[in-house]
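Why this split exists: single-chain examples teach little about how molecules sit against one another. For that reason, every record in the complexes split bundles all components of an assembly together and asks for one structure covering all of them. Below is a record exactly as it appears in the raw files.
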Amino acid sequence: MLKGNAIVGQSGGPTAAINATLAGVIRGALAAECIGTVYGMRNGIEGLLEERVVDLGKLFGSEDDLKILEQTPAAALGSCRKKLPKPDSEDGADKELYRRLFEILEGLNIRYFFYIGGNDSMDTVAKLSVYAEKAGVEMRIVGVPKTIDNDLALTDHTPGFGSAAKYIATTMSEIIRDCSVYKVKAVTIVEIMGRDAGWLTASSAIGRVVNGFSPDYVYLPERSFDMESFYSDIEKAFEKHPNVVVAVSEGLRFADGRYVGEGTQSGVTDAFGHKYLAGTGKALEMSVREHFGCKARSVELNLPQRCAGHLISLTDIEESVKIGRSAVEAAVTGVSGVVMVFRRAEGEKYVCEIDSASVRGIANVTRYVPDEFITEDNNNVTDSCCEYLLPLIKGEYPIKYRDGMPVHAIIE
Amino acid sequence: MLKGNAIVGQSGGPTAAINATLAGVIRGALAAECIGTVYGMRNGIEGLLEERVVDLGKLFGSEDDLKILEQTPAAALGSCRKKLPKPDSEDGADKELYRRLFEILEGLNIRYFFYIGGNDSMDTVAKLSVYAEKAGVEMRIVGVPKTIDNDLALTDHTPGFGSAAKYIATTMSEIIRDCSVYKVKAVTIVEIMGRDAGWLTASSAIGRVVNGFSPDYVYLPERSFDMESFYSDIEKAFEKHPNVVVAVSEGLRFADGRYVGEGTQSGVTDAFGHKYLAGTGKALEMSVREHFGCKARSVELNLPQRCAGHLISLTDIEESVKIGRSAVEAAVTGVSGVVMVFRRAEGEKYVCEIDSASVRGIANVTRYVPDEFITEDNNNVTDSCCEYLLPLIKGEYPIKYRDGMPVHAIIE
């Protein structure tokens, strides 16, 4: 059994579940007999290079502290977006970076290295594994996925996605309620995150299989966007009711590859001013107002999609904790250079198992919404898509509040 | 004791608590011996003129149904923005409108009329009361306030405001967590509703007295906005930390009266394109990027502020129910032409009592954030402001969920 200390870092964009995974890693490492101190690196690999580390066992000594950590959104250790050089680089500065990194790790007697992040972060895990092996460093290096985008390969879904999906499905149902109060013709366009893959935008439709109402249309970045079809869709919806609500991905593009947010094919192009002014929702809002002459507005769900810690999915948080703990258990049994993944069991009942896979298969790969989840008209998701999504948003985490606000764990 | 039927309507913009007040009116009316059928008008006075009414006793026959109604955001009966003509108008069409309205009410044997709305809706209540008195119609007409804006006169606060404030305070604390993960210099501008009064924007600061963190600055529409002071504020914040977060009201104006969202005094004015492109947050985001050359982004909290039924204040919902019920009780005792109001008792402990006041004192009047709640630098709210706000967001309503989403009551 490999004895020594462990270190864990967080990297990439924040989610509402990344600290739940951190809590899982801490629990697993504190429980492992072969692991001594459990360090946390501040701001990922970037902070590690500056030797900014904390003792997580001291900071989160009780189960109560860990529960607060679980419900805290955004990376409690801080994050970074540093890309490591190739592990076999012959460049002097690159070699020095790796040498220094492993010197710091050696100084802390680290034998277990955990990195929680998206596919850029898994690139870091892959490179460190290659370097360590080449240099003969005895260290177990394991990645744990997180991303609200749900676009990682090899895994059925990603930790953090379920909570974002729950927020989006719920907020969309509330926006639909809000839009339904007047009888005036109006189009409301809700812009949702996910530049390449449409998983988050698809989640806005879950209400359909829960309470029977969902946006009239859902446009994913997996399909090219056509302005005439969009107008024709809205006309059809107006035949049914005056309040039309559509969900659009921030990453929608026209057939020629231009982002919808950059400009449109309609006559209002000139009105956009500078490019950075118009997001996808705003661009479509202006086009609709111009084309139909009706009330139009856009809502960008923005940062709350990834940090709404007050509305997290119990399923997501429990799985996120479990995958963190499983990472430690896997490392203790001897694996390295792997990423932990979720596998959904076959059958009607939702059962999710945790496994590991080679980290090289997940780094820098995007998993898109498959064809069978998108309707033939390219303007909505199928019921089977909603059924895939539904188990991931189920259950409500019992948030601890103080004076009317959720309590957060903060590492100074 | 005046015997007959009751009718209730909802009017103006949606809130997350307006249905809680409806539930209170329904409970009060069903319990009153002198009241027979409890009607609901669809889309307020506008739907009433089209005789679109429902029997609320039948729709919400059980306490379970009423509980679901309480947690449903946005006006379940639908809303309208109709302004009634003067009750003493000599115009033929105006006279006909009043005649027809009271004919419909007489046909339903209405003796109790309740209208839930903001100050435009209280104008409706005032006019109907004057007309009824003049015409010798025996009818008790009572207004019940609602608005997320908290800007009504005579009342300590408004039903619906506490839930919006809780959503804003919580979401702001989550955004601050999200912004804190990187070490890169960045300014995040959060735009909050409230065109004239800054109560909602002020709520973003509540975290300061709960968990010690809140936006660096809070700019209210009660003060004119100065671009140079704003830049200087941000410079000071950068001396303390790299992640600056500010809250701004959508209604901010420069000293010359122009809205900040219409254009700025900085050199980027030309970049705005058409006026409707830039909200206050977006305009300031562009100005900051230009001035500091740093990362800048804006988040518009938008519709969820008023319809986030999943995060409602228990205090607000309980008070909203109670003021609805109290309206019925007041009407039964004989008052008319009044609006129900909240009075906060003196003393440290928060105690809120319900009273009634002449509706003429509330219609068309705006209550602003007072001077003692705004700091001398005009860039934040005082602790006493936070202490006024805090009791209103306390407590969490036990939301009923089904399959991961809150259940809503829908009147078809």
